């Protein structure tokens, strides 16, 4: 069973927000809301500094608490690549999933349902990368199947030092950052 | 306790719907967030290729419409510039169409200039008014009394009209306010300039040196893509910058150079390369001129000499020079682009050119390549009238090495009436209020005019000062000239309409043509439609307009671009060689080899004001684009955390900046950070806009341009160095904070 | 020094999570109160002591129905897609405490109605004789009474516990990472219910009994809160930080004064003295208990949303 996820090379990322803008236009994300965003961390004292820039979004976790807490089944795991999605037709807007996400990746769409990154499943179904991955001018984002040991994402993880976000929350996120 | 009060998302949702019904909306302007979700079965999806206009890079793009409505824009995979991926501004290009602040009809001012009160008029009235005034100026003062300011390829047709009109005063701020000194510095050394796009083979560089250049925040698409390639390939990056930029974070060596002292650092690098025999001997012997004299000039510029000036330790200077030598000729000291800093910028750029020359990278892989362009036929126009008087911006060749027009020269002539008066300004797509230093001079110059015309897409600050404002269609609604800029690959790309203009906006070619007709210059517009013009330009290429409309960009056969591929090395300098010593400069009384001169320091309690770029904005022209506005609605003033503490400036709260001449900025958020030296502050350019028609942008952040009242003019070529202003902090009261 | 910036500014999420305002704490409180009432009235029913029509326990089921409906109204008001609320009942999601809660609530009503059926008042009997007849039949069967009593105790208990599990299942909020939240909310609900009876009971014996029960519940509540805090303080840095939010920090005042001081310690002290007849019974104590129960829910729900895992990974 395929498990889609991302590997993102923070060495190449410049934090240009192309991924943010592309997601907005591709998915018509309403003004004032973001499915993805840029986080910047600075450590040290001038001039000895380290900077990590990360493009972040829903991590489509292997153990998604947003799915288990959903009372209507709106939040669910798709067969295709184990992508985590919300079915707006079933969502009542109780916001338990917003509270359940350690990454605060979800939000309430103006129409009342919980919304978040969908890994552009409508593009993935056509064999394309998510919009953010496809647009990235530094080519730092990689999307693929972790269940396939020969996929680019699997090989990148095997070859490079990487970390995921808040692993101690125990959700097994499927987005990894190469350092 | 704010936690207990729940933010009402419904209000925000209503705001989204409300944006579609706001009174400011011009009739017919569609609302971007009107439809949600991607294409469903049954949707009609259509793609139209074009090239981007969010900055001057002109990446070829493909716009997608869904059921006739503009949906998104992506890169054209065949495009050598973008390689199929646009930058965030290009990706946000749909926002230019949906921008609710757009101009939608020609405007004639009702009161005095600058009072920002307008009547809507027809194109006929507006162009008639302009033509009448232009003819009057021509009769009283000659056609040269009209100056044309422009930025971008959209200005080409209007430039043609004004050339036909008979004025030689055609200028772009991108020269004297931006890259001019760099091109002069390189011309004096190698005989050629750096070109646009820059002819830098960053992707293959094994060592990349950036002096103040902040690639990654400065979002020239090809440059950033190549920068990422170089970083990904393990290239060594060396960054000299008073601010720890994104590029600095990827550097093996970060040199927190003191602002204004870069020439000393460059001279010290030259000194090490020469003293330790690390330079490319073969290259210098074969292609160098005046090396011995050069060597003598830099002999005293040791790292120890540079240390107290630059605050960079001598060992760091040596180590980085050796690192550069280790990877030559694939070591590239990037010339930068916006280099108008301190007034000795042409010499500093020459210093950069000299370091590159010592590394022998001219025409080499990983260094500077020879760009190739796609040859298109020129349209057979009648010859332009010749002006006896010549241009007005550089009287007597005061700036002997200026090879393009000086905007500040035009402005000075407008104010003084010398060497002859300038009575009309026609401004296309450039907000001179933020582009040029000392806004007060610009305003006084404008007030001295008989005619001020601005062509723009939104009611910008410069438009506010016009007599007539002409609303242009955005790039998604119009044809423009072909883009055939020289690059690694020769290519030609087409801009064509994707959607119709929602209001009474017109394309620049139409404006240029109609104005020409009214001026009696019909002979210069023999073509009836712009398609006819474009088709004629393709003559002899084997391409037809129909094919260009389908493909968007066509790449020509690859030509050798560097020595490795067989391109010959030639240096069109007076000596025919790389001029380590410049006789041209010596003859004109300038330093034949750059020298370091100290610049004024900030007085106690003041900080040098530095400014730069953000990747989601272009100058001051994208702040009303809803997508890009949302990505970055305002700028912040970067202040070192210790300075912020001492001045009791809280991170995220607002402060006003006051410059050395008492000019007070708008309130701006403080970014207290470790990422900057303690002697300077930094702003992203383009904010603090005052035009009240820019509803999204007005009052957001502070304008660096407003605080740039002093500028240092480069004696070689007239560029305006703008990093010469100092600011202190003024607390902001109550609600404004 | 570490600087962390984000470009995200989503409503309800940034700068700190605040998806639930007053509706959820109010519902949790009313749910807990009703749960306590159901356990108490169910207990009296089960042990055969329900018949005194003048006892406060007699009115509990009716009050529960009203209060629970108010609570559910608050829940409904919190929903962002109210018209889709019926979707809760087209499925059962066994891993979702909220789904459990939705169905528990559905089953709570029949238990309450059954309890109410034992007490059909005269005017209603006149209107609907069939109802009266049913009531009489039920009342005569001790087994039926015990069943109804047990059902009320069980569903009430589940109702009380699930409101705490609802929060503790949301692992992303470290403040709520405690298995004690379920029992704590149940005990708090029992305490509020006992306080309620204590407040309105005309019969002195009943009042005394409920006051003593309340004292027991209050002591248990203190113990549970202490264990809850100890659990957090002996766990990871994120949990220690979360505990700090209510021990000091932005919620410290409401916690110490509203929940502990005025909500438990003061009324407990008064009631301990009262049941020893050293002071007179006063309505102030049970009112404080009830207010304290509400404050407990508010503090935990608001502070919990603010608590978060360390967002800064080490690299």
Short description:
By secondary structure, chain A is α+β, with helices and mostly antiparallel strands. Helix content of chain A is 20%, strand content 25%.
List the main descriptive attributes of the protein structure presented here.
heterotrimer, B: 737 residues, alpha/beta, N-terminal domain of TfIIb, Dimethylsulfoxide Reductase, domain 2, Barwin-like endoglucanases, 24 helices, globular, disordered N terminus, C: 315 residues, mainly alpha
How would you describe what is shown here?
The complex is a heterotrimer of chains A (179), B (737) and C (315). By secondary structure, chain A is an alpha+beta fold. Chain A is globular, with a radius of gyration of 16 Å. Chain A has one domain (4-178): Alpha-Beta Plaits (2-Layer Sandwich). In chain A, strands 8-1-10-9 form a 4-stranded mixed β-sheet. Chain A has a two-stranded antiparallel sheet with strand order 2-3. A two-stranded antiparallel ribbon of chain A has the order 4-5. Chain A has helices at residues 18-27, 65-68, 96-100, 121-124, 131-135, 152-159, and strands at residues 4-9, 37-45, 48-56, 75-77, 84-86, 107-108, 114-115, 141-145, 162-163, 175-178. Helix content of chain A is 20%, strand content 25%. Chain B has 737 residues and is α/β, with parallel strands linked by helices. Among the domains of chain B are: 2-98, N-terminal domain of TfIIb; 191-371 and 562-587, Dimethylsulfoxide Reductase, domain 2; 607-736, Barwin-like endoglucanases, CATH 2.40.40. In chain B, the strands form 7 sheets. Chain B has a 7-stranded mixed β-sheet, covered by helices on one side. In chain B, strands 21-23-22-27-20-24 form a 6-stranded mixed β-sheet. The radius of gyration of chain B is 26 Å and the shape is globular. With 315 residues, chain C is mainly α. Chain C has one domain (23-306): Formate dehydrogenase/DMSO reductase fold. Helices cover 70% and strands 2% of the residues of chain C. Chain C is built from 11 helices and 1 strand, in the order βααααααααααα. In chain C, helix 2 (56-78) packs antiparallel against helix 3 (97-117). Chain C is globular. The chains are: A alpha+beta (179), B alpha/beta (737), C mainly alpha (315). Chains in contact: A-B, A-C, B-C. The interface between A and C is large, with 54 and 53 residues. Strand 2 of chain A pairs antiparallel with strand 1 (2-6) of chain C, so a sheet runs across the interface.
